[in-house]
Structure formats: structure tokens, C-alpha cells
Amino acid sequence: MTSLRIFVIGGLMSYRALFGWLKPGILIPTLVFTPICQILLFAYIGRSAGVGDDEFYVIGNALNYAAIPCLFAMSFTIEGERQGGTLGIVLTTPARRLPLFLGRALPVVVNGWAVAMIGVVGGALLLDVHIPGGAWPSIVLAVVVTSASCTGLGLAMGAVTLRVRQGSTIANVVFCVLLVFSGVNVAQSDLPGWMAAVGDWLPLTHGIQAARLLADGSGLGAVDGLLLRETGIGLLYTVAGLALLRFFEDESRRSASLDRV
Amino acid sequence: MTSDLAVEAVGLQRTFVTHTGVLRRVRKDVEAVKGVSFHLERGELFGLLGPNGAGKTTTIKMLITLLLPTGGSARVLGHDVVDDVREVRRRIGYVFGGDRGLYERLSARDNLRYFSELYGVDPRRQKARIAELLELVGLTGREHERVEGFSRGMRQRLHIARGLLHDPDVLFLDEPSIGIDPVGARELRATIGSLTDVGKTVLLTTHYMFEADELCDRIAVIRSGEIVAEGTPTQLKGLVTAGRVLEVETYGVAPEAVAAATAVPGVRSVLAEDRGQQQVLIVQVEPGAEVTQAVLASLGAARVGRVSAREPTLEDAYVQLVTG
Amino acid sequence: MRALLHQQWTCYKLQLKVLSTSAFEGFLAVLFPLMFASAALLIYRVQDDPESMQYAGLGAAIMGMWTAQGVVAASMLSRERWAGTLELVVASPAGLGRVLVPATLAMSTIGLYCVVATIAWERWVFDLRLEISSWPLFVLSVLLTALTLALVGYFIAVTTTRYRYSGTLGAALEYPGWILCGFLIPVASLPAVLQPLSWAIPTTWGMAAIRSSADGGSPWGDLAACAATGAVYAVLAAWLGSRLVESARRHATLALT
Ligand SMILES: Nc1ncnc2c1ncn2[C@@H]1O[C@H](COP(=O)(O)OP(=O)(O)OP(=O)(O)O)[C@@H](O)[C@H]1O
Ligand SMILES: [Mg+2]
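^ inputs. structure came back:
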């Protein structure tokens, strides 16, 4: 019961407490205007290069941009704890760590999902892309899965920021890596082999593929393998992140390593 | 397992490993706490005093499970601070001074709500409990404001409310009164004092001696990681070798009279100070000795004005303990 | 005069040091456009047409300049404000312009560094060798583009100071600049409503000049347009700058954080 409340209510409150973008002056430029611009940028590039169609870029970039809240918000909710000096207090509470940290992921997933959906819908409207009405429910699901797996990566990064400062720099770099490696703008088959191989182990890659297939009219049955793969990769990063958090907490009791801000 | 002691530290040690230098990193061990032993009875208010860097915060961090001891052991309410981490955490509250450690973007009430969740405060009790605590620390009416706009003292009060949320049996207060205005500090002392009335055990560190004197049942003075004295405030004052100071105003006292006063048993030294027409004799008295009558008698014919005696304060005792 | 030059040189060196050691304005301002350029080149590479690779390679090389100068400039004054130094700067006898000029020049230096770094990156990673038919004209075009972009940056810095989240605003300018300036997308292929916006930015003309000098055409017409639009921004910025200081003194917005 307590753990459930920590997961849901605690998660929501720490998201509110630690993610500093929840003001319209920041929210609208970063999470509405910019993703649409990224979609337009690559869609026009694709048109000039004569590669791909608009739908391809709308889906790829909208989902890629979901990584911004997933990576930044998730790592802020852990890094900010240290900057504000609250980490010590949180760690003296008896709260179970699993719901404590996983709960923070929930609002982040919703945020990422919303950003991606704004991108897909906005991009489709602006570029006049037609996506069949029946495909939308399964696209919504694919986007949820993808934001969740990106958030897993964000959690792992958040754990790293307990040790390495400069969390937002790391998040930016990871975002760029996703942009280039996970088939956002170039089909994986057109990427150089080693890049495609890296992409296979990143979140986003399979989610984007699934969403593209769905938008082209495939049924959910045709993409379940991809979505499962996406989920698995997200889970992998989540477990790695939780293990790291656990390790750092234990380690900080031994060597006072979380004291130094 | 069943222990009546609220806190028990036995030979507690903590060494930090630090590195200096960038290219050739030199390893340096800092012995912050060098084997301290003390205990707190249930319901006791115990003060830990000592100069900056003496190891007070480090000791507290070991007791609240944030740091592992490198030697010795400690129990809180019978639970080992290394092994029974969750049991310990459930029963303790921790408040430190300063303006960090709060969620700036949340309101005071939301800060408290968040921590009540983490401490597993019964959701049905939560609302009432938060209102009660806000009232206690005098923040009622400001609870909807974001903490980023709070003054230092308001933050400190909020910290205290946070530490009390889950009604802990043992409270660790690390310099809770820094940055609080005099009236607020007085209220805070009243609050801390009342905690023991309801059966809580409190471990307090502070740099304000009058605060420790007023509040603490027992005090330990820690210096460079070692406890150099322990006892009730009165016992500590008794340790002061300076003893009482007697000041006697006289008019035209003869040097022989000063010598006679010096000879009185129990008097350590007499110093005559000229203040205008009068001379003031400053008589250092050995602890426990009662010399006023004998000194006055020894002055013979000299006219005597006001006589006053000053008790040594806890501060006198502290200064002597940490400098001596 | 010598004293002025000395002061400007010192400020320039200081600003360059601050920028190049900061993760955000130094490292990321180089990395971010480089990664986007790579993504674009990966797209163009699919067709494997040397002519369009040359087109994309040239544009990608200049893209970073937009970030290093335009985007970073937007947050420059607010960075000073966060640090609490904006009031000191305005109060200093040197005046705002004398502080901003070396700062924008420092950003141009990073911008030029981006150009060189991207050209090297294209060679090393994409095995793409740019054909430059006239190096003197090419260098001249790049320098004029950098200079006029510095003026745009100066203009952005001045206009966004009053906006609390100007850093965010700067970041929001990044993609529109990449879309509009003809780095990777020919201006003619943009929707008609956007084209006048492109023409209003000197960088668009600079980019056109760079392409002409690389491909053997005459860049002079584009260079003239680039210089002219740049001058407009300079005049506007100077005028707004003095207004800004006035209004800030009146409304006490300098210390606002
Ligand atoms: N994380 C750490 N790494 C290295 N040394 C540390 C660390 N924390 C504390 N120390 C050292 O341990 C010693 C004791 O520090 P501590 O914070 O316990 O002092 P304190 O008694 O609380 O002082 P104050 O009255 O100033 O709060 C100091 O010499 C300090 O430098
Ligand atoms: Mg301390």
C-alpha cells in the first residue's frame, strides 16, 4: 500500500518538484514548437534529397523527440535531488527504492508520449500526411512502448549523473546518438552496418520501425515482435539503472561519495 | 535485542579517504571520528558539542544510516545501524541546518506531503498531521507558497516539520537553529524542549552554548573526533578549573590587604584593578570553595562597596575543554 | 585607441575561454550541429549522387556557425544576468557595446571552428571531399557570413534579454535557422510563405555566395546582399541596445533572474 502510494503519488510529486520545464515559457518552445521544426527540417531535407516520404520523417522525428523529455526529465528527477541537497534526506527514509525511483518514470512516460503524439499529429497535419484512422490506436500503443523504453535509458542516465555531473550535457549527447543511430531519418537497412548494429541495442529503433509499419496499415500482429524487442531493451536499461542506483547508494554509505556536490 | 537505550554508540570510528593533487594524486586519510562511545536513554535530550570539523555531523550520519562506520558499532532503539537499516530509518527523524534540502519548486505543504508518502504516514492521518506540524512550526498561512521564496528561518522551520512527520522516536537535529531569528529561536527551543515531554529522544548539535545549557539533559563535548567530556551541563561547568569569579569594589585598599586576601584558602589569585577612585579586586576562586566572608574579613579597614560573584557559564567550560 | 583595442582583445580572449570551456556553449554547440549534419548527410548518401553530396557537404559545414553564433548569442546576456554580472557590465564605463562586440567575435571564432571541424569530419567519416574552385573567394564568403551572422547574433542577444527564458528561445531558433538559410534545403523548395523570411537573414545570402565560390560561379551579388542585410541588423541592434539599457534602468529588469 505504502509502496503503491510512493510509486504513484510520490512519483508525480517528484516529477513536479524536480523537472524545471513545467512553465509555459519553456514548455511550449521546447516541447511543442521545436519537435515540429525538427520534423519539418528532415522532411524537407528528405524531399530535396529525394529519399523517403514525409510520413517516414514525421514518425521518426516525432518519436525521436519524445526522447527529450524522457532523457532530460528522468535524469533531472535524480540529479536534481543531489543538487538541491535532498538526496540525503530521501535516502534516510525507509521508502522502498524500487517504487521510489520507478514512480518517477510514470509521469515522464506520459510526457514523452504526449510530445511524440503532438509531433505525429502536428507533422501529419502540416505536411498533409495521411495515416488511416484505424491505425491510430495501435500507433498510440507503439508510442507508449517507445517512450517507456526511452525513459528506461533516462533512468540509467539519471543514475550515472549521481556520479558524473553535467547531466544535461549527457542527455544532449545521448539524444544525438539516438538521432543518428536509431534509424530516425534513415531506414536501418540504409545505415552503414556498424551503425545499424549499434542501433539494434538502443531504445527507439524498433519502436520507430513498428510505428512506421502501423502507419502504413499493418496490423498490431505484424509488429508485436518489434514492440516486444523495444520493451525488452527498455527493461534492460531500467534494470541497469536501478542496479546502478543501488550500487551508488551502498557505495555512498561506504565512501561518502554522494556528499560531494 | 531488547534494549532500553535509544541510541548506543560503541567505539564508533569513521575514516574518510580523500585525494589531493591533480596529476599525482596523493591519498590522504582523514580520521573524522576516532572511536566515540556514548548512549542516550529514552526520552533524553542529549547535546553533542564541538568545534567545526570535530566530527559531529559525521557521527550523526553514521547513526542515521547514511554512512557506514569504519569501526565500532551503533544501535538505535536496539537496531544495528549497519544491518537493520530499514528498522532504524522507520524510527528516526533527521533535521539539518541550512537552507538546502527542500524541493524549491514545491509548496511547503507539498514538501511535507511528499515526505509523508516516503515515510509511509497513514494517508488518512496525513492531512491533519501536516496541518498540526505547520501550526507547530508557525508556518500556517504560508503553506501554499513555493519554498523558493522562503526565508532562511522559514526553511529551517519547514525542515523541522519534515523531520517530525512520521512521529519518530528518535530525532537527530544537526544545528537546527542556525539562521533563525531570536524570537523564532526561542520558540524553537520551546518546541525542542517539549519533544522530550512526549517521550521522544533527541540528539542535538549546536554552536549556541546557552541553547545547549537550557535544553540538554546531558552533553558530550567532542574534539577532533574524540569525546573529551561528558555529563550534565552542571557537571561540565564544575569541570571548569577557572571556578567562580568574585568581584569586590573597594576604596583605598592597602597592598598588604591584597596579599592577605590572596592567602585566604580557596583563593587562587587576586588582581586589583584601578577604576577611577575605586579599586576592584578580581578574585579567582577554586571550584567549590566558599570564600566571600573570609576575603572580606581579610581586607581590614578598607571601605567595601558592591560585591558580586559570577558563575562560570557553559561557554567557559566549553572553551576550556576544546582549547585546553 | 590602443587602450580600446587592448580592452577589446582582453575581453575577446576571456569570452573565448568561457565559451570553449563551457559544456553547453562550447562542446555542445559544436557537437549538436555536427550530429545533425551527419544525419542529413546519411540521408543524402542514400542516393549516392556526388553532386547532391557536394551540396549537402557545403551546407552541413556552415550549419554549425548558426548554432555557435545565433543560438548561443540568445542566451549570452541572460547568462550574464544569471551570473549577476549584467548589472556590473551595464554599470561599467565601457558600455554594453564594448562588451558585446568582443563576445560576438568570440562566438564567431567558435563558429569558424565548427566550419573547419565539419569539413574535416566529412572527409574523415563520410569520405567526402568538397570541390572548391576558388579558395580565396570561398574563404572570403565564409568570413563575411561569419561576420554578418555575428551581427544577427548581436541583434538576437539584445532583443531577447528581456525574455526570462532566452536560453530556451535560443534553442528554439536553432532548427528554424537550419530550415531557412538554405544549408541543406534549397530556399526555392521551401513553402512560398517561408521564403521571404529566408531572404531577410544574411546567412542565406552568405550560404549562396559560399556555394557559388565553391562551384565556380560569381559570389559578388550574393556577398553584397549578405553585407547589406547584415548592416540592417547592426543598425537595428545598436539602436535597440541603447533603448534596452534605458528601459532596464527604468524597469529594473537587469537583476531579474
Ligand atoms: N565526505 C567527506 N570526505 C572527506 N572528509 C570529510 C567528509 N565529510 C567530513 N569530512 C571531514 O571529517 C571531519 C569532521 O567533519 P564533520 O562534518 O563531522 O564536522 P562537524 O563537527 O559536523 O563540524 P561543523 O560544526 O562545522 O558542522 C572534517 O575534518 C571534515 O573535513
Ligand atoms: Mg556539522
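Chain C has a mean pLDDT of 83. The first helix of chain C runs from residue 2 to 21.
thumbs up if we can close this ticket
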